[in-house]
Design brief:
23% helix, 6 helices, alpha+beta, Nucleoside Triphosphate Pyrophosphohydrolase
Amino acid sequence: MIKHLSTSLGSSKLTKSELSKRKILDRAPRPRLASTIVLIHGPRNNPKILMGKRSIKHDFMPSVYVFPGGRVDRCDSYVKYTGELSKRTEMILETAFTARKARALVLASIRETYEETSLMIGKNESKNTTSKSTWNDFQKAGITPSLDGIEVFGRAITPPHRHKRFDAWFFIKNIKTQKIPDISDTAELQDVAWFTLEQIWELNLQRATKMMLKVLEEYLNYKSPPPYIFFSRNESGKFITDTYPKA
């Protein structure tokens, strides 16, 4: 497991707007819980990976390529789901959260994937349109979000020098369909596409995304992933990378 990353990843660049918004804050904002999912298709040694470019209008990390993801919403705790998390992922998440909140964290990444790429991750079931959230689109389509095959592989807390901060958990799922799933641009992400790892490294990436790509590459080489994940954060002004839970 990567514990120390090279400075070759480069520094974190903030826009003038981001700098000005952070400057007016008296203290670093509290991180909000968020989740990101890496969807891969094809062989693990040469997969296609779903990414898109954030709009230039975003006030947080504009115009960079990212994996689908976002903050956890209240509705994620109550949506009907199918499938189960692996014992490993369940154990890691429930070290930090209740069982319901752990599931909500994973379900948020599924919801965000749909909102940002139009791709629904789930299984065909009967239609039920009682929800008033984004999950209503799943229900209208007869799709129940599925936790099957989703594994956690990383965690990163946004440094305090940014005006928005997230406690982001990173998940991975191998889409095992014969045909690569259809996706589309949305108001959230542009140039949504399936990229190879080689292509991704040529994109405009924020430092945190580069860091997690390194972690992803290592994870894809595991025959059996360890009972802990990569964890980066800032403590007392120092950048720390180790594991969660402690190895």
